[in-house]
Design a protein that fits this description.
single chain, mainly alpha, globular
């Protein structure tokens, strides 16, 4: 085993190191989740359920921008931590520079193409004549200034992998608090609309970038911008390792569009508005599980580079315990406090409330399995078992979810649509268990294999 006793990842106990990463990641993600919920509450209460539905319809574009930054950011940061674990700091810095340049180029091209097609894109995302003005306004701002979001996400990922999870957390806190204050001012003082709310989100992200930039002036910083040439090898490795993260975020967009389109067809605007409520709550849980993955990825990547199998084993045991406990707790809260959850988003028509109550109670079953699936995806991604990581993401968020959302309402009625995600998560967890048993066991393998 390769170790560097001056490095806290090698020096301190696995439990202590895991908590050093888990707590900042969870706190940062929880604050961001609170930000998302408060945003939804303010839009719903101030502008009404149609505006809330419009923002929900346009949200996949925000997700795709984040997905792009995570694709290259997580892929590059995983390679970065593996190189650090192996003691090759110069190569790690080369990977960092290469990744940031790629993110800038990809964001520019995608945003430009989407902006040119923004009107038909808005309808494709599920907008109707009622929701189009709100969705289109939100979309326009996100496409013009979305590069700020990708920069913030990429820098946050690399800084967390550069052993500064606390600063990554602080940037999320600053972004979230600023967004709440700015959008409160926009909605309740200036009495403006959805486009200005979107701009408030962008401005908040820019403040987060400024916080992250302070890392480059600290003693612990090893991130450096080097003079580089395009490397086909690093490009292929980055895009390969980061692909499950991109697919995961893309899957959120597929999930949102699929539910918006299906519920608009089955239940009309009331169904879309009810889903918007659930989707804000779902964003909270996704942030929590992403926080767990954000804690697992730097540690497992580093230990993989250092060939420290025992530390990988201990880290994963802790992560799975936390993921399972969080999922069960979320399920129970969803059953007990359903009506209270719905009521905080505004005074909606009874039809919307009734749909949302049923949706939350059924949908929250998914969280029992979802946390474990998130953590296992991060594990396989961090040790470069990309096929399995991709399978977990594609099957739970796209393949099985789409099959169930198309089939269940035909057999069991309209409200069974809410069970599409819970069933998809359950099936995927079963496939993970089968895969692990076939490979003997996850934690008793004598050698970590690269796929």
């Amino acid at each position: 085993m390769t170790t560097n006793q001056n490095n806290l990842l090698d020096r301190e106990s696995v439990g202590r190191v895991f908590m050093r990463y888990l707590i900042p990641s969870l706190v940062g993600m929880m604050i961001m989740a609170l930000n998302i919920v408060v945003d939804g509450i303010m839009v719903g209460n101030r502008l009404g359920e149609v505006a809330l539905a419009g923002v929900g319809i346009a949200s996949p574009v925000y997700t795709i921008l984040v997905a792009m930054s995570l694709w290259i950011g997580i892929g590059g940061a995983t390679l970065y931590s593996q190189a650090r674990g192996a003691g090759d700091t110069k190569h790690a810095q080369y990977i960092f520079t290469h990744s940031i340049i790629l993110i800038g180029l990809f964001t520019l091209v995608i945003s430009l193409l989407a902006f040119i097609l923004k009107d038909p894109l808005t309808y494709w995302l599920g907008a109707n004549d009622e929701t189009f003005p709100y969705a289109n306004d939100y979309l326009r701002i996100m496409l013009l200034f979305g590069f700020i979001l990708t920069v913030e996400n990429a820098l946050s990922t690399f800084i967390r992998n550069d052993q500064n999870p606390n600063l990554a957390m602080m940037s999320l806190v600053v972004t979230a608090v600023a967004n709440i204050l700015i959008n409160y001012y926009i909605l309740y003082v200036l009495e403006l609309g959805v486009a200005e709310v979107a701009f408030g989100t962008i401005l908040s992200a820019a403040l987060g970038v400024l916080v992250l930039a302070t890392h480059f002036f600290t003693k612990k910083n090893t991130l450096r911008f080097l003079k580089i040439r395009f490397s086909r090898t690093i490009f292929k490795q980055t895009m390969g390792i980061g692909f499950p993260s991109f697919l995961s975020e893309l899957g959120i967009s597929v999930f949102t569009v699929a539910y918006n389109v299906t519920l608009a067809r089955l239940l009309g605007t009331a169904g879309v508005a009810a889903f918007s409520i659930l989707n804000y709550i779902h964003s909270v849980m996704l942030m929590i599980f992403l926080g767990m993955g954000a804690a697992v990825q730097p540690l497992v990547s580093y230990y993989f580079g250092a060939k420290s199998q025992d530390r990988i084993k201990q880290t994963m045991k802790l992560a799975l315990i936390v993921a399972t406990g969080s999922g069960i707790l979320a399920f129970l809260v969803g059953q007990i406090a359903t009506r209270q959850i719905v009521s905080i988003f505004g005074d909606f028509p009874q039809e919307v409330v009734d749909i949302a109550l049923i949706g939350i109670r059924l949908f929250f079953i998914a969280y029992i399995f979802m946390g474990v699936n998130f953590v296992m995806m991060s594990y396989f991604q961090s040790i470069a078992q990309i096929r399995m990581a991709t399978w977990i993401t594609a099957s739970r968020e796209i393949i099985f979810m789409m099959i169930f959302i198309l089939v269940l309402p035909l057999i069991f009625g309209i409200h069974s649509v809410w069970l599409s995600v819970p069933l998809a998560e359950l099936v995927v967890m079963i496939t993970i268990i089968v895969y692990i048993r076939k490979k003997t066991t996850l934690f008793q393998s004598s050698k970590i294999k690269n796929e």
